[in-house]
Structures are given as C-alpha cells and as structure tokens.
Design a protein that fits this description.
By secondary structure, the protein is of the alpha+beta class. The protein is built from three helices and seven strands; from the N terminus they run H-E-E-E-E-E-E-H-H-E.
Length: 159
Amino acid sequence: MPTLEQIQALSVLTTLRIEVADVCEVTIEGKTGSLTAVLIVRGTATLGVDLSKAKLTVDAGHRHAVLELPNPTVQTVALDHERTRVAALRSSGLWTLVPGDWDADAAVTEQCYRRGEHVVGVAARSEHLVEQARRQTQSLMNEFFAATSSEADVQWRLR
C-alpha cells in the first residue's frame, strides 16, 4: 500500500488541460473620445491537485485507505500569443479625427491581453471542469492504489 510520503512526493498532480476560445472587448475613455479593441482570445489552462496536502488514513489489515485531498485548483493559465489577436480597433469622438495615438493603441492592446488571460482563468474555474478534474484524479488514485493490490476511497476537502 502506498504511504503518505509516496503520495506527497508526487507533489502536484495535473489532471486536466483545457483550451479556451472567447472574445472580449476593452475600451479606454478619454476626455474627447474613446478607443475600443476587440480581442479574439485563445489560451490554455491546467487544473490539478496539490498532493503535498494529502492526508491518508490506512486500514492495513483490509488493505484499504481513505485519501483526503484538497479540491482541484487552476495551476496554470496561458494565452496562446500566436492565435490570440486584436480583431478590431475602433475610435470614437475626436479620437477618430486625430490619427496615430500609438500610446492609446498600445494601452488598449495591453489591457486586452490582460483581460484575455483573465477570461481564460475564469473559464478554467468553472464547476463542471473542477468536477471533471476530481473524477480524473480519483481514477488515477484508484489505479495508483490498485498497482499495490490495495484500494482507497478519495474524499475531497472542499475548502
């Protein structure tokens, strides 16, 4: 039967990788107009479990254990910079008459990319994806214990 130290030595178990595609819009307002950018967001995120926080209760006589794990969390969030792009830049007010304010273009584009990364992170935190990561973790832990001719019930520490 695996020991707690063997489980914790695995450190972090990544069980789910998702791809996100979305669209977001960012507007910078000025005194005489505004600039709006539309971003097509493409990114990835991973979810997993921090096994260093696992707790294990063992019934050695029956080769059975209860493995208590923290809830899966988002581990990484990344924009795919090759496929994420600004689809449109629109100016309004006097900003349409004054061309070439590169500072405003750069600022709205930078805000778009930050918002895009946020969009990917929010998508990864959805309850159905967390539940999918739980199921995959449980399946992997069952296989891990079965390899030592033992079994474990996985319980989740939701907070």
